[in-house]
Amino acid sequence: MSNNNDKNPAEAAGYAAAGAGIAATVGGMGLAVGGTAVAIGAAPVIAAGAVVGLAAYGLKKIFG
After folding, report:
1. Residue 4 has what DSSP assignment?
2. Bigger pLDDT: 5 or 58?
3. Using H for helix, E for strand and C for coil, what is the string for 24-56?
């Protein structure tokens, strides 16, 4: 188990930024349902990327 001495907010922020950057690069998607289409802005895609980046950081901490 990890202890409180191995917490690294800068590393966590790096993972979040990397996830957000990848999501921003891939971004620009839309949702098409029943013959109508709605564009999804960049902000939710970037936020989701940051969450995925933080999840990757968490997995690294668990297994690393």
Report:
1. G
2. 58
3. HHHCCEEEEECCEEEEECHHHHHHHHHHHHHHH
